[in-house]
Amino acid sequence: MRNDLTIILTALGCALIPTVAVRAADQNGQDRIPAVASSFIEATCLDCHDGPDGEAGLDLRALAGNLDDGHLFEKWVRVHDRVKAGEMPPPDSYDLAPAKVDAFVSSTADWLRDHQEQKWASEGRVPARRLTRLQIERTLHDLLGIDIPIANRMPEEQRTGGFTTVAAGQAMSHFQIEKHVAAVDRALEEAFRRALTPPDTELREMSARDVARRNPKRRTREPEMVDGLAVVWSSRLTFYGRLPATTAKEDGWYRFRIKASSLNTPEDRGVWCAVRRGFCVSSAPLRPWVGGFEATDEPQEWTFETWLPKGEMLEVRPGDATLKIASFRGGQVGAGEGGPQNVPGVAIHSVTMERIHRGPDDETIRTLLFGDLEVQKNGKKLPTLKSDAPKKDAARLVRTFARRAFRRPVNDDEVAPYITVATSSLADGDSLLDALRAGYRAVLTSPRFMYFREAPGALNDYALADRLSYFLWNRMPDEELMKLAEQGRLSDPQVLHEQIDRMLNDPRGERFVEDFAAEWLDLSEIDFTEPDRRLYREFDIIVQQSMLQETHAFLDHLLREDLSVANLIDSDFTFLNSRLARFYDIDRIEGDELQQVALKSEDRRGGLLTHGSILKVTANGTNTSPVIRGVWINERLLGVHIPPPPENVPAIEPDIRGATTIREMLAKHRSIESCAACHVKIDPPGFALENFDPAGQWRDRYPLLAKRRPEGGPEIDPSYELEDGREFSNFEEFQSLIVESPEQIARNVAEKLLTYGTGAPVGFADRPAIDRIVAQAAESDYGFRSLLHAAIASPVFTRK
């Protein structure tokens, strides 16, 4: 089979040439600046912004009206927004009549909006957009019935406006095409393997002796046999607790049932254990998370499912950083160095390991690939397909596959090239199996598979089904969506709302919050930093994973119950297990299951801003920065864009002596006029969160970094004032002030949903639609689910 990247890339390029209509312009090819706007700028702005040396680097006299230049368009939007907000001209510089300001804002807004609407009418607001690697993986799973990881075989993707789904940031190159083809080949290989070979079956039932150290005289990192149980003590030894008996013979999904109890259990809690996977050798130290559990004196059984590559094994060990740790002579376990320890441990009673598949069984995969054709076994020879008319069957099956892969009907001209690939393979003497695989490969490397097919204007029902399904599920439309699209009913508002609820309530909809939050809230980057163990001794991998679970459960609850998005800033509940509750210094939670918890004022928690996951991704592991957190909160939760800092302003270096507070160091930034305009927005939320350290715990004083002491530095002062002058003395007062304007939070959530779901940032001409979405959601107190419904039903979502 050929791998002709040039042909694929050429086809891709041809498919992406936009249709651009000629727009009205003046003789210089520029949109005419409204006379009202020109007069206003001449009279009130040029004193400060005239020439190359204009304040903030803005030369309004040279600001042209060519709105087709995206950079210029954005400059005009900023000018409009700052005048509308009353920031410019400076209030103490001019005594302007409100009518003049209103006239400038109105005329400029009409000009900008008209330009963008005309451009979108011919080109659409969303450029050509392709599937992300996550969407490709799940689509291949749906099409072929497989369950193997595919996304990690493709290049990392750039995030634009926070999201990988934004078309403007989606590059395409020979390298990416090559990786895509390789991923498709791997997917097809797995689908044909499962369709043509016996089922994957494996079941291992292992006793404590089976998973413990085999040779009692050999130093290893496996569990020790103590009183008939396989024991792993609390320790920081690397790979201690590895279970070679669980080593995978083949790549695959495995279900593990682990029966265990605790030893030397602390009086106030069980022994929290971490389950991870890996090769568990020094040359391959990465150990991805599988799960966690809290062992007690009473034996219990826990079930985990994980993808386990060939050669990898499980590691089961106490993972609570607050437990007393064992001491091993020589730094090794075995040959008597370990022995019974007076520290907590986990005793493994048994482990069951079973090979499983997520998704369709092998018979269903055969139907997906071969339709009604029968697979014939030929002894030791390769299986074949029984067909009286191979060419006709190949054409029929490739056509059916193309329709599913392209997520819409296909005509003869569109499907002909892919059928030709299959029939040519037959003509060359290949088997029908090889011919079908060649045809399917051509389909899956086509731009029609990789790209959304959307035309300017209202989306047709098939394009709407595509956009909706990849928004809520990150996978291809299911049979019900396709049937409604075929009937032309999906664009009916009532039907659309019914489908939104159906899809959210479907098991596939359970991933929506997790997928969305991974990019919106940067949760995908939670592993990027590791809190300094000497400063933040209670932090561990169990705490981190519990933090992620807290945020996912919290957002899912807002969505399921349609609770106000004001809860993102302040809420009276959260979701905790006993380990995370103890980390937060909340002492009334028991058990390793996540549970909804009513918060008290003394808990100092409530809202996303107090979630450890958010506090961790907005810090560097050693210290905190009000600037980093302040920018993050503005951009992610308040919908306030903060431009990059001026190039001539140096970054703030941390004072490791602890003699100077961050508040004092930031004072010089606020004294620079070009910095002050942004810091008036950045600093309030940044300082409000200073009582939370990089690991997410509460603190009253800064750490002494030079001495690696978590406290002992200057006392933290979280007080500040908002941009509008309202003052707060602590974090709780800051929360109260922000939730007084829930419509601002709702507007930001709507914009983030639409950016993620449509593949284009919200533009100036979208603002009236956003206003209507927020107004609709006001009826439900800005409920998260109501916002989602209103966003999907809006023309921003239902039009290209």
From TrEMBL:
Residues covered by the DUF1592 domain: 459-586
UniProt signal peptide: 1-24
Domain Cytochrome C Planctomycete-type, residue spans: 45-92
Keyword line: Signal
Source domain of life: Bacteria
Residue ranges of domain DUF1588 in the record: 605-701
Domain DUF1585, residue spans: 724-797
Keyword Signal found: yes
Domain annotation DUF1587: ranges: 129-192
KW Phosphoprotein (keyword) present: no
All residue ranges annotated as the DUF1595 domain in the record: 394-454
Protein's name according to its UniProt entry: Planctomycete cytochrome C
Organism, scientific name: Maioricimonas rarisocia
